[in-house]
Amino acid sequence: MASQRRSADGRRSTSADVCRRSVSSGLPHVCFVPTASGDSRDYTERFEAAFEGRAQTHVLSLFGQSPRDYQDPSMLLDMDLIYVGGGSTANLLSLWRRHGVDELMKKAAAGGTILAGISAGANCWFRASSTDSFGPLAPLNDGLGFLQGSACPHLHGEPGREESFRGWIADGSLPGPGTAIDDHAAVVYVDGVATSVMVEAARATAYIVEPDGNLCELDEHKHVLPASEHD
């Protein structure tokens, strides 16, 4: 099996920065998957602007909304990198399974495609996650399981995220290890192992949440991106 690389991101542009670094040579095929946002047109336009001139961009639409009709999900197998947007984690997982996207993601990763995502697009790769898909924050034990344990994006960016996630890991509501990610930070995984944390600001970082709920900062892996890479 090819080495599988994934990027899980808290919020904003960090994951896109990591993606651009990962596929910096030539014009790779990069696919945006905006399922979690209901195929938001604005979100798609921002993705295309971020990769303009750096990649051949594609968008997987499962809603068939104008200006894009429904796209055959098998297109994912031809991509160098797949970038999953934020929104509702629960809706994303439900639609992906209905359309067979979950299995296609697994095949794409096995073939060497880089998988990346932000917010819900980071949650989905894990076995479980903290989500507000149902309104209040709640544990969701329904992820793809490509990465073990549970994820929590927006750790210090939204009220209640840190306290609830640490509590759910400690009481077993969510499986460990817990990976907690600040906004403006991204964790890079190779073959299921966290190898680096890339951030846009030194204050942002990522943590492992231990079984007792304590936070263990992944400082030794951290790399602060130069300003020119996230302008």
Outline the structure in words.
By secondary structure, the chain is of the alpha/beta class. It has one domain (5-222): 3-Layer(aba) Sandwich (Rossmann fold), CATH 3.40.50. Helices cover 24% and strands 28% of the residues. The chain has helices at residues 14-22, 41-51, 89-99, 101-110, 120-123, 161-171; strands at residues 5-9, 29-33, 56-59, 81-84, 114-118, 126-131, 138-140, 147-152, 178-181, 185-190, 193-199, 206-209, 215-217, 222-224. Strands 3-2-4-5-1-10-11-14 form an eight-stranded mixed beta sheet, with helices on both faces. Strands 7-6-8-9-12-13 form a six-stranded mixed beta sheet. Helix 6 (161-171) links the parallel strand 8 and strand 9 (178-181). The longest helix is centred in the N-terminal third of the chain and has 11 residues, at 41-51. The radius of gyration is 16 Å and the shape is globular. Pfam families: Peptidase_S51. Keywords: Hydrolase, Protease, Serine protease. Belongs to the peptidase S51 family.
